[in-house]
Q: What sequence folds into this?
């Protein structure tokens, strides 16, 4: 038992040290590098919290895609100049803010320690109702059945975010393809990796999606892996992104949430409640929705990392 | 309280949320022109759904509830539309419809014309905003409300900088930072509440939480986060540049609806989730901040050289009125004064939404005709643009609280509730705020009514946009003609009341 | 038999950790990017290889063993691609980029 | 025990991230710190989930599902913020010419 406690404390200490490093880092690049390392440590922390589903997502999105996004942004800012920078607060203000934040941490820490014991939980309710969903993974059960609405709305949030990001394109670049073309590196070892890895990644993603019904995994993790594979191929110049006007691309992003809402409305019509699944067909319907959602999530995540079409084509 | 049980007609608020969301998802593949037509075709059904919800609540005298997938809370999620929710659904449907019709001029796509960036983005953003505000008033689960808040932010932020000018992008970034900080603090509170009670359903939580340490910390975090999103002074700094820099149609929905979403969630937090935990001190602080917002916001509006900024600061001030209801409702729960304050707060939210949307649309029309929005150079506006100036004046009456307008009814209810509750100082604030509001409205009118300078544009035959803005202003005034009894609707399903 | 397997695991994993420690020390202490890269990739390839090798007897099934080997292979790939890219980049832009 | 340790770590990360968001001036730094703050919030939620273990589950699956949803929403927020920052920088770049 104590070995595990020591490991937890070590993880927490490492995470704290990296977090301090992020905040104190003089260069943005250092901060981002430390932040990615922090995300990887957190992935281990999630495993220790018995949240393997979250660990997979944290690794793929929290550390992976966020890291790529931030590093690419830093790279671009370094090229065009850091941009106008707000005035950093003076010493006295900084100290005051520091004390305030320490107070927030103290209050929050106290609240965490003061949470009631035994802790309230819905684990028993989930266990009792999970059989009706024909799913083996309780987290997938919550995501797709009990709190299916949240998942549906979250998929809609991704579509909205893509629209929001595209709306930030400069008008003269609007007809172009998302992403800044100068990031593409066409030769060297990256091209090799971009040829070898995607087949493996696709197999892994399909596996993660498939086992998600009964074991940790699911559409978001699989979608993130697929998005990463797509981005890799794009970076190596092996794949092109169609222009914003492309109907198939837009339809891919929209298909998952649209199907999910359609299934919900069908439940309203035939079962009398939104998102009530047809009896006996619960699992097939859920798997179908998850399958289409994975494609939409992958497309949306990749487009979000690419950013709006850029007017900047310089090498 | 026991978990909410499904009722008849629960499908109405559900569809009021899901139809705009579905339309938003379909908007991108349909393209700008398709999205525009889809939005316009949804305006009437959306209004009917909101109206139907109100009728169902009025007839049954109880909230309308839909359980998603037949799963009942705490495991499942519920939509619960009470009187306040129905009133907000109706307001949103009206404001969205007016804005959409108004926006056809600026964001419409002619058949065969290429899709522009602004037109591509505007319609789905408007639809998302509509779905999000409806979700924010009917969802009964604290985490679903978090998703609603994020949807609201992600729709509102790009609207604020749709023109792509540098200042507006800067304002949008500042707005996004405030909003993200606000929602993350809110989510932190949600985590603590789940850890304390094991449920996030507002009805189930109501009366179950005492004043334990985690609950106090959660309440503080969530309140701070929601205040940042509602732009209550001193967290208002993001609002004026963001709302003033947006295109007129976007400003209208931002000021009229978006800030109301987080306000309604705050009401649900204090009078639903925390109904069993009286915190009069916190209520007085909220109202104190509201009072400061009324006085300082109005004074700032009085000093603005630009018309759009004046209207935006007026929003900062009018938001303050909403917060006066907190100590008055909490002071003597179940009393006549509390009921009056509740109705007053709801009515203020509605009448401000209508009046402010009208005002922003009118100001947008004036700025478009003049090519600028400097108040000092408004001379001749009364002759060249009589309808927008009249719209501004009528909306101003509601904001001032001059009888017989919707704003008068709201402010009168708050004022008399304050006196009945023995908290007369809030009544003074209401009166003082009305005077200051009169000051800035008069400033604009007097500038517009001066005989035209040489640069005043020629008179212009009013079209549909002018009529829409005027219609909203007339509605905001007409609210005051409704018999007071008809506002009983917003009392239905109020939590923390003896049944 | 299982004692022997456990002992093998212990030795191999400890040796792997040793390589990781040495690699990390090299990353921190070596003077230039090329030798740092050298230290880092050695730790990745050999250290992880030893850890995976040590864990193989503990794997419950053939599928689990294959997964462990797949992890090693993927890291090798990534290292093989990232190492030369970093080296090229440093040669082109200097160590501070 | 893990629940408490990582719950407290979450509390600390919230304070650190908040501090960075308020004190650091570069917009990109603020976004990184926002993500730090977010990871603290999710850890607190994760601690709540771990404490709710029962009925044969090692943790309460409801908050775990909520964290998954929250992670994806937070990522979408990050991409929007980054897009805004890049847009501002591009404008800056072109203004003088």
A:
């Amino acid at each position: 038992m104590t070995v595990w406690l020591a490991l937890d404390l070590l993880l927490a200490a490492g995470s704290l040290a990296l977090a301090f490093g992020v905040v104190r880092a003089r260069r943005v690049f250092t901060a981002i590098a430390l932040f990615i390392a922090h995300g990887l440590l957190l992935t281990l922390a999630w495993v220790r919290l018995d949240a393997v589903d979250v660990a997979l997502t944290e690794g793929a999105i929290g550390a992976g895609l966020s890291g790529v996004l931030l590093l690419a942004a830093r790279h671009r800012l370094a090229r065009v100049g850091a941009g106008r920078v707000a005035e950093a607060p003076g010493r006295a203000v900084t100290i005051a803010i520091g004390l305030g934040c320490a107070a927030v941490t103290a209050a929050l820490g106290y609240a965490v320690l003061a949470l009631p014991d035994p802790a309230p939980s819905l684990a028993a309710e989930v266990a009792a109702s999970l059989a009706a969903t024909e799913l083996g993974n309780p987290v997938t059960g919550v995501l797709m059945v009990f709190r299916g609405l949240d998942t549906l709305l979250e998929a809609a949030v991704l579509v909205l975010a893509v629209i929001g990001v595209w709306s930030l394109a400069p008008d003269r670049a609007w007809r172009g393809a998302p992403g800044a073309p100068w990031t593409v590196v066409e030769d060297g070892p990256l091209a090799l990796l971009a040829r070898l890895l995607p087949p493996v990644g696709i197999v892994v993603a399909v596996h993660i999606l498939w086992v998600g019904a009964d074991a940790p995994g699911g559409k978001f993790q699989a979608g993130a892996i697929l998005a990463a594979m797509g981005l890799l191929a794009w970076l190596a110049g092996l794949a092109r992104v169609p222009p914003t006007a492309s109907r198939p691309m837009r339809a891919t992003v929209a298909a998952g949430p649209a199907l999910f809402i359609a299934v919900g409305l069908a439940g309203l019509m035939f079962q009398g409640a939104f998102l009530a699944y047809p009896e006996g067909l619960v699992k097939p319907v859920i798997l179908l929705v998850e399958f289409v959602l994975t494609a939409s999530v992958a497309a949306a995540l990749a487009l979000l990392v690419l950013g709006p079409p850029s007017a900047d084509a310089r090498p | 309280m026991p978990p909410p049980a499904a009722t008849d007609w629960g499908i109405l608020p559900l569809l009021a949320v899901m139809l705009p969301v579905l339309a938003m998802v379909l908007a991108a593949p349909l393209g700008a022109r398709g999205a525009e037509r889809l939005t316009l075709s949804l305006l009437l059904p959306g209004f009917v759904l909101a109206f139907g919800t109100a009728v169902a609540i009025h007839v049954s005298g109880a909230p309308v509830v839909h359980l998603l997938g037949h799963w009942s809370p705490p495991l499942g999620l519920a939509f619960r539309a009470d009187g306040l929710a129905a009133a907000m659904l109706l307001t949103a449907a009206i404001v969205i419809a007016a804005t959409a019709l108004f926006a056809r001029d600026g964001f419409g796509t002619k058949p065969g014309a290429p899709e522009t960036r602004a037109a591509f983005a505007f319609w789905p953003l408007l639809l998302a905003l509509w779905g999000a505000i409806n979700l924010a008033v009917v969802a009964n689960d604290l985490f679903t409300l978090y998703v609603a808040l994020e949807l609201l932010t992600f729709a509102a932020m790009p609207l604020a900088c749709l023109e792509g000018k540098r200042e507006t992008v800067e304002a949008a970034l500042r707005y996004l930072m405030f909003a993200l900080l606000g929602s993350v603090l809110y989510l932190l509170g949600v985590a603590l509440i789940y850890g304390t009670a094991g449920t996030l359903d507002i009805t189930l939580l109501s009366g179950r939480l005492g004043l334990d340490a985690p609950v106090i910390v959660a309440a503080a975090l969530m309140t701070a986060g929601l205040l940042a999103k509602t732009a209550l002074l001193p967290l208002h700094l993001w609002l004026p540049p963001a709302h003033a820099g947006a295109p007129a149609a976007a400003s209208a929905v931002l000021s009229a609806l978006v800030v109301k979403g987080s306000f309604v969630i705050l009401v649900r937090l204090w009078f639903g989730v925390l109904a069993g935990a009286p915190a009069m001190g916190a209520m007085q602080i909220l109202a104190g901040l509201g009072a400061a917002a009324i006085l300082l916001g109005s004074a700032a509006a009085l000093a603005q050289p630009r018309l759009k900024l004046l209207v935006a600061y007026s929003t900062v001030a009018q938001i303050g009125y909403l917060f006066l209801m907190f100590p008055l409702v909490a002071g003597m729960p179940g009393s006549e004064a509390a009921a009056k304050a509740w109705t007053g707060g709801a009515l203020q939210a509605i009448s401000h939404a209508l009046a402010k949307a009208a005002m922003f649309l009118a100001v947008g029309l004036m700025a478009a005709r003049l090519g600028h929005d400097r108040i000092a150079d408004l001379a001749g506006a009364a002759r060249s643009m009589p309808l927008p100036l009249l719209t501004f004046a009528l909306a101003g009456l509601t904001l001032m609280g001059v009888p017989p307008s919707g704003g008068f009814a709201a402010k009168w209810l708050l004022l008399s509730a304050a006196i009945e509750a023995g908290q007369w100082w809030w009544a003074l604030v209401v009166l003082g705020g009305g005077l200051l509001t009169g000051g800035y409205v008069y400033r604009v009118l007097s500038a517009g009514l001066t005989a035209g300078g040489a640069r005043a544009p020629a008179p212009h035959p009013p079209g549909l946009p002018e009529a829409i803005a005027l219609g909203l202003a007339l509605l905001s005034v007409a609210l005051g003609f409704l018999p007071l009894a008809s506002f009983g609707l917003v009392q239905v399903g109020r939590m923390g009341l003896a049944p | 038999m299982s004692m022997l397997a456990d002992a093998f695991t212990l030795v191999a994993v400890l040796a792997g950790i040793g390589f990781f420690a040495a690699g990390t020390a090299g990353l921190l202490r070596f003077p230039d990017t090329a030798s740092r890269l050298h230290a880092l990739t050695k730790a990745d390839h050999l250290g992880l290889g030893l850890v995976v090798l040590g864990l193989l007897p503990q794997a419950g099934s053939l599928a689990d063993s294959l997964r462990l080997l797949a992890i090693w292979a993927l890291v090798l790939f990534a290292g093989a691609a990232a190492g030369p890219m970093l080296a090229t980049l440093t040669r082109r832009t200097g160590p501070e980029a | 025990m893990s629940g408490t340790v990582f719950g407290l770590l979450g509390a600390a990360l919230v304070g650190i991230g908040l501090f960075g968001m308020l004190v650091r001036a570069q917009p990109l730094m603020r976004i990184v710190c926002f993500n730090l703050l977010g990871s603290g919030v999710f850890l607190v939620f994760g601690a709540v989930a771990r404490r709710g273990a029962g009925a044969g589950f090692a943790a309460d699956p409801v908050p775990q599902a909520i964290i998954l949803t929250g992670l994806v929403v937070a990522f979408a927020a990050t991409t929007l913020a980054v897009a805004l920052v890049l847009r501002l920088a591009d404008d800056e770049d072109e203004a003088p010419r």
Observations:
- The radius of gyration of chain A is 22 Å.
- Chain A has a mean pLDDT of 88.
- Chain A touches chain D through 100 residues (CB under 8 Å).
